[in-house]
Specification:
The protein is mainly alpha-helical. The protein has two helices and two strands; from the N terminus they run H-E-E-H. Among the domains are: about 30 residues; about 40 residues, no CATH class. Helix content is about 40%, strand content about 5%. Strands 1-2 form a two-stranded antiparallel ribbon. It is elongated and about 120 Å long.
Length: about 120
């Protein structure tokens, strides 16, 4: 009796042939490659990036001698500035109040003749 290679009755048929096992992953890979290439072409093509950027100039750190809230900025970020140029104006309300208080103490010292501070 010769062996019958056909599926016996009631057995499930083979779902994927050997050819389909190669075609389906290859098709998926091609679709993913097309999506990635399209993304690069539409969105990333126009951007330039660099890992070794260099600024032509002398970077310096600017800081104030006192703490305070900035009221106005005279120079923009990355702009050129001259030596001695005012870059930031600080809120001086607290300093003016302290100055007025100190001048009041000096006036009291003059009137009474003794040191109040």
């Amino acid at each position: 009796m010769a062996a019958n290679n056909a599926n016996p009755p009631g057995a499930p048929e083979k779902r994927f042939s050997k050819r389909k096992r190669i075609i389906i992953p290859t098709t998926i890979l091609v679709i993913v490659a097309i999506v990635i290439a399209s993304y690069w072409y539409l969105y990333r093509r126009g951007y330039v990036s660099t890992n070794d950027a260099f600024i032509a100039g002398d970077p310096v750190t600017a800081s104030s001698k006192i703490l305070g809230r900035a009221v106005s900025l005279s120079a923009g970020e990355g702009g050129a500035v001259a030596e001695g140029q005012v870059l930031v104006r600080l809120d001086d309300t607290d300093l003016r109040a302290l100055y007025t208080y100190s001048m009041g103490l000096v006036d009291v010292d003059r009137v009474t003749g003794r040191k109040m501070w």
